[in-house]
Amino acid sequence: MENKKAKVVVVGAGLAGSEAAFSLAQNDVEVILLESKTIEKNPAQKMSTCAELVCTNSLKSLKPETGHGLLKYEMEKLGSLVLKVGHETRVPAGDALAVDREEFSKKITDILKSHKNITFIERVVDNPAALKEEFDADFVVVATGPLTTKGLESWLIDSLTQDDFYFYDAIAPVVDADSLDYSKLYFKDRHKDPSETADYLNAPMNEQQYYSFVEALKEAQKVPAKDFEDYQFFEACLPIDIMAERGPDTPRFSCMKPIGLEFEGNDSPYAVVQLRKENLLGSAFNMVGFQTRLKYPEQKRVFRMIPGFENAEFIHLGSVHRNSFLNSRSLLNFDLSSKKYPYMFFAGQITGVEGYTESSSMGLYVAFQILRKINGKEPKKWPVETGIGALINYIMTVEKPSPSSINFGLLPQVPLTKEQRRKRAGRKKLKKELAAKRANEALDRFFDSL
Ligand SMILES: Cc1cc2nc3c(=O)[nH]c(=O)nc-3n(C[C@H](O)[C@H](O)[C@H](O)COP(=O)(O)OP(=O)(O)OC[C@H]3O[C@@H](n4cnc5c(N)ncnc54)[C@H](O)[C@@H]3O)c2cc1C
Questions:
Q1: How confident is the model at residue 316 (pLDDT cuts 50, 70, 90)?
Q2: Residue 436 burial class via C-beta count within 10 angstroms: exposed 0-12, middle 13-18, buried 19 and up
Q3: Strand partners, 174
Q4: Is residue 415 included in any domain, yes or no?
Q5: Is 290 in the same domain as 346?
Q6: Do 123 and 249 lie in a common domain?
Q7: Which residues fall within 8 angstroms of residue 259, CB to CB, at 6 or more apart?
Q8: Percentage of residues in the chain with pLDDT exceeding 90?
Q9: Measured from the CB, is residue 38 less than 6 Å from ligand 1?
Q10: Is residue 44 within 6 Å of ligand 1 at its C-beta?
Q11: 223 vs 318: CA distance, rounded Å
Q12: Residue 417: Cβ-neighbour burial (10 angstroms; 0-12, 13-18, 19+)
């Protein structure tokens, strides 16, 4: 009897969908690729072609000792279409892989549409569960991105996620630990016995510093809401600049409240900015409650007014934008298949990662796991020391989902020798080099074990 080819329906020909479709097709899987944009563009889309880069044209750094460099190394090993075409359509941008966005998108579209194993169909999908039967497919991949169409969003909420679906991404800035002035900061937790180790680092303000800071927040330039971003904030997670606009004391009675954070001797600061360790390395701190609409240069200017932040370097800045994503930890298995619909996989930004490269890598990861299933093998966990493994580990373990781009803080700590720890200058660079080396070695071992 002739063996029937495996068949996969991929919904969404964005970055993750294009990667997944191409990778599967290259491995002799029949792919049905469904894309809505020629029928119904979302407000961020301008082109009718696949894998559109809706904002910057940069796929970020190529340097091996960066998070994005790590991911690229792994994606290349998985036969990434995005990287291949990215290099072919590269424009000068130093160490970054920036592309001619139109050429990039057009080339990817041509490759996908002319592939012998891919059938491209223009379609707005409202019910992905119906696709398995309709196309007699083995698997369905949903890769519809941060601006998933309303109909599909409703299906996801009604049939899969209920409350575990998020519409906005209110991101607080993350600051590089090495760039802070610790002489002005102190460790203390609000609700912990002082004899226990504190998790929070605090930046105290006196009255004058506080009101100048609130005034600066109010006056700073904000990113205007786009037409698809009718901001409706949850009261519990208001951007700090909105709090400042509500009244000069609002932040002080909210995330900046000093209660429980008294200095030794019981004097109290007037207000406090709390910082929480962002990662296992302890190399970065999240600014608690500081999600914000301030423009990026304004964030740098205003947040450097915080005592101890005079020379702060930000790993990423805060933002608020529409972003549909689900709670992967509660809804998906580690191979990104749905717990409720085991034949349905999710890929790209909808899983809770953030960024072009990150989303693309999730498309490749899902294709990798589906190919294993097709070949009768169990899903395989990626080493957490790698870029892809660290992203999966993040979305599958984070308690309060908040999309993350790749950064070294997601990787386990690299042990340093005593001597290496003593040298302050160059320590950060060394840590990154060691983490990158370890990631590549872990990846090689992982592929050898397959
Ligand atoms: C406004 C905005 C700006 C961004 N800027 C950047 C940036 O500068 N740099 C960066 O790294 N990241 C940026 N991102 C984040 C993100 O990485 C990108 O959005 C990335 O494209 C996500 O990849 P994806 O494959 O998950 O989704 P997408 O690339 O968005 O692809 C999803 C595809 O699915 C299609 N689709 C949606 N619903 C349906 C449906 N019901 N049926 C069929 N097809 C459907 C869409 O038309 C689209 O082609 C931005 C996001 C937004 C929203």
A1: confident
A2: buried
A3: 286, 316
A4: yes
A5: no
A6: no
A7: 190, 268
A8: 71
A9: no
A10: yes
A11: 11
A12: exposed
- Give the other-Cβ count within 10 Å of 450's Cβ: 8
Whole-model pTM? 0.79
Among protein residues, the one whose CA lies closest to atom 1 of ligand 1 = 44
Query: Which protein residue's CA is at the shortest distance from atom 31 of ligand 1?
Result: 14
Tell me the H-state helices in 78-134.
Answer: 81-88, 101-114, 131-134
Q: Let me know: does 70 contact 407? Beta carbons within 8 Å.
A: no
Q: How far is the CA of 44 from the centre of ligand 1 (A)?
A: 9
Mean pLDDT on 316-322: 83
- Do 435 and 342 belong to one domain? yes
- Residue with token string 């701190």: 285
Residue 444 has pLDDT above 80, yes or no: yes
User: Does ligand 1 have an atom closer than 6 angstroms to the CB of 227?
Assistant: no
Task: Answer yes or no: do 309 and 336 share one domain.
Answer: no
- Answer yes or no: do 27 and 12 share one domain: yes
In which domain, by residue range, is 295 found?
173-317
Residue 149 Cα: closest atom of ligand 1: 38
Count: domains in the chain: 2
Give the CA count within 13 Å in the CB-facing half-sphere of 17.
30
Is 1 part of a structural domain of the chain? no
Q: Which residue has the higher pLDDT, 264 or 437?
A: 437
Above 60 in pLDDT, residue 156?
yes
Ligand 1 pocket, residue 320 CB under 6 Å: no
Residue 2 lies in a domain: no
Ligand 1 atom with minimal separation from the 56 CA: 8
Among the candidates 299, 317, 335, a domain finishes at: 317
Let me know if residue 404 belongs to a domain.
yes
**Pairing of β 284-287 and β 58-61:** unpaired
Pocket-testing residue among 356, 357, 402, ligand 1, by greatest number of atoms within 8 A of Cβ: 356
Residues 79 and 179 in one domain: no
Report which ligand 1 atom has the smallest distance to the Cα of 348: 26
- 77 and 135 assigned to the same domain: yes
Cβ-in-10-Å burial (0-12, 13-18, 19+) of 8 comes to buried
Q: Which ligand 1 atom sits closest to the C-alpha of 151?
A: 41
What number of other Cβ atoms are within 10 A of residue 54's Cβ? 17
Asked whether residue 264 falls in the same domain as residue 341, the answer is no
Evaluate if residue 1 carries a pLDDT over 50. Answer: no
Domain with residue 438: its CATH number is 3.50.50.60
Determine the atom of ligand 1 nearest the C-alpha atom of 41. 47
Domain boundary residue, one of 317, 334, 357: 317
